[in-house]
Amino acid sequence: MSLTPPSWTWAVMADIPAPGLRQIELGPFQVRLYALALLLGIAAGMWLTVRRWKAQGGDPDLIYEATLWSVAFGLIGGRIYHVITSWDQVTKEWWGPFAIWEGGLGIWGGVALGVTAGALVAKYRGASPARLADAAAPGLLIGQGIGRLGNYFNQELFGEPSTSPWALQVDPERRPAGFAEVETFHPVFLYEMLWNFALAGLLIWVGYRYAIRAPGLFALYIAGYSLGRLIWEQLRIDPSNEFLGQRVNFYVALALMLAAIAFFVWNQRRTEEVPPAQKPPQSTGGRRKAKAKGKAVPRGRA
Known about the structure:
This protein is mainly α. It has one domain. It is 57% helix and 5% strand. It has helices spanning 7-13, 33-55, 60-85, 107-124, 129-147, 149-153, 188-209, 216-235, 248-269, 284-293; strands at 23-26, 29-32, 168-169, 184-185, 242-243, 246-247. The strands form three sheets. A two-stranded antiparallel ribbon has the order 1-2. Strands 3-4 form a two-stranded antiparallel ribbon. A two-stranded antiparallel sheet has the order 5-6. Helix 2 runs antiparallel to helix 5. The N and C termini lie far apart (127 Å). The model is unreliable at 1-13, 286-292 and 296-302 (pLDDT under 50).
């Protein structure tokens, strides 16, 4: 009996198979795997941020409160960004702009509103928003990476056709126009996931190895993630609005990367201005005494 598997087995094993389901049934409820991936990412990111914040002597309750507000506003910001930049991909029904379960969350919109909400909570509680941003940066990357699994179950965020061993199989009904006969594509969601995990580890190492002035690590997070986006946007073939031959998100990532690098350099090189020491005020009587002590004595009267 031969132990060599048939040729079709190698073909299946050579590719990442298309997901067999997008949701699971829990009694009368349908749970989207996309939503589960997002929740898992949020939990993992919060756990890491709590550990980092506690190591700095911070109160973990602040992280729980900030996460609650950040997630709520992050979802709103992410959906608004997607609707604005990809309005032609939104379902035409009245509920289309609110259909988060169908996918379509722009990272930059989510980060902008989510981080703003977290910073306001920190400020209100008397903590440093800059230090909190640095503590949260690796957790944000871990959460984003895990959340990308949701793109796999939704069969989105894939790139050009590929025959590599890690190529992603996509169902015919999920393939973009013009690629109906192509079976496997670059798994861009996987590339982003691995990039985010590696960048999170790098930020943790940099934070331990060097004295980085806050929010320097957060600036490096923006710059590093944006660099990855510049690469992934070249691979993606899903519909997107373009400008001068490039996807809009390419220009957003480029602008944010340059701005984050410039801010990091400026923030690390600037010197703290120490206010000059103020002399204690002297009373009027004290001034008179000082003048009296310093009064010249006429010659011959010594």
